[in-house]
2-isopropylmalate synthase
Amino acid sequence: MSVDSTKDHVRIFDTTLRDGEQSPGASMTLEEKLQVAEILDEMGVDIIEAGFPIASNGDFEAVSEIAKRTRNSVVAGLARAIHADIDRCGEAVRLAERGRIHTFVSTSPIHLQYQMNKTEEQVLAIITDTVARSRNLIDDVEWSAMDATRTPIDYLCKCVEAAIRAGATTINLPDTVGYATPDEYKAMFVEIRNRVPDADKAIFSVHCHDDLGLAVANSLAGVAGGARQIECTVNGLGERAGNAALEEIVMAIRTRGDALPYATSIDPKFLTRASKLVSAVSGFPVQYNKAIVGKNAFAHESGIHQDGMLKNAETYEIMKPEDVGVKSTSLVMGKHSGRHAFRDKLKELGYEIGDNAFEDAFRRFKDLADRKKHVYDEDIEALVETEIATQGE
Ligand code: KIV
Ligand code: ZN
């Protein structure tokens, strides 16, 4: 099967409320989860993974409440390959307009030996049994091969074939431990989709962890290999180093449509709001230099960059801040700022001073910036006021 190169729709499956919440210390209350689900629904997320219903009564309640309230997105719950998990999950998503059971089992030799203590044949039988049980409860069933990227490809093909034959409509091949490289991950999807009979009956999905900082690159590589669903989280929240960051994937596809000929249904204007909300409710701050949603993502301090930005924003920005819900670019005044930005700042603050006064004020601003980490507007105002006063003496 060849890889489709037209501008295909790639489904965004957000798992902030399930994999994201599994980050140690990131647990959220019901009210907080409802707020997050609401913004995900509004921003155009195709599938919201709302939780792991068997994990606790609280998780069950959150999944069923989100299932009831969500208007546009499919609402999924996670279930191990255990009847009780699947039945509980089915019950939790029952009231969704569009619900999904997402069931998974480990497939790699190391997981089979140490975690499951089962043979390959036993796991194949479990896949057939649990996917079929899920399909008896609901039409939309996702099956995941946990640790797919460390599973021998011949065995992985058999597992995927069994899952599709038993009725799985989405096949997710996670890089559970963030081990794959982009080329390997893409090749895995190409080979599986070529070898497995009826592979085109299912949507293939990527799910990447960021242990080596490759989660977003791997996700996009998996899509190049034919996957059409990306599992990700807001701010990349998730186990260990986290999951692929939703905002990075959405903006990479949107900004680089020439190289990544896909489309998502996400309205990027919500990205900043969603990031702030998830950071607030999870208690995980967003690093200043985080792509797309970090405080510095649209901030410039160096003189050369500020000068360029004042002439044409495209000199140093490849996205418009307004597109992701940020009011505007910020030119931060500091020791790296140059005359152009300083003059512009004075104008913004309402000052017009002569050339000599300007040169004096600029020198004093540079001295101040050498001593102070942050130079605020008030500092600059004080400096110019003193300059004006001394000129008048
Ligand atoms: O990382 C993983 O393998 C998972 C599965 C449960 C999909 O989160
Ligand atoms: Zn995961």
Observations:
- Residues 19, 174, 176, 207, 209, 239 surround zinc ion (ligand 2) (CB under 6 Å).
- The chain is about 45% helix and 15% strand.
- The mean pLDDT is 96.
